[in-house]
Amino acid sequence: MKKLNLVLCVLLICSVCSICVSEAGGMPQQLFEVSLRAISLMSNGNYAAAIEELNLGGIYSQAQLKRLLEDSFKKAGHIQTETAVIWSENGFICLAYPLTAPDEGNAQTVLFSISSEYEFLGMSLIKWSDAVKNYEMAENIIWLSEYKPSFMVFAD
User: Where are the domains positioned within the chain?
Assistant: First the structure.
């Protein structure tokens, strides 16, 4: 009987946890999608549409965003779209999108600052290693897709 009660308690806890995760899962996915659309727009030189997508009209001009990001987009060439991470820091939500595969810590990364009401507040350009230092200290991390480097093994 004690084992049955223990199993039922574990199942109840698991079901409550899965409900909480599924309810919270929608908003991070929307944040990933919006930020990816904005990065795609900016990488194609359409800074005005990106400002509109992120609702940052009162914060950035097209010229400011172009100065901030244009060189990084040129250096990156093809923009990766698989790896991104969200974490909470000092009452804000941070979303980091490395422009290239973050196999090295110096991969240029767009860091979005988002309010607790899910409004984009701004962005900056940082190194992936700085994003890693910050999200590793966070309690909750949500990945779009965690970066897992692949290694090739060559036999002699």
Answer: 2-143
- CB-CB contact of 28 with 142 (8 Å): yes
> Could you tell me how many helices (H) and strands (E) the chain has, helices first?
4, 5
Contact, 97 vs 87, CB < 8 A? no
Q: What are phi and psi of 48, to 5 degrees?
A: -65, -45
Is this structure's pTM higher than 0.90? no
Which residues lie closer than 8 Å to 18 by C-beta, 6 or more apart? Answer: none
pLDDT value, residue 37: 96
Contacts of 76 (CB under 8 A, 6+ apart): 43, 99, 100, 108
Tokens of 30: 């929307």
DSSP 49-69: HHHHHHT-TTT--HHHHHHHH
Question: Could you report the per-residue pLDDT of 88-132, keeping only the tens digit for each?
Answer: 999 999 999 999 999 888 999 999 999 999 999 999 999 999 999
Candidates 54, 26, 25; CA nearest to 40 is 54
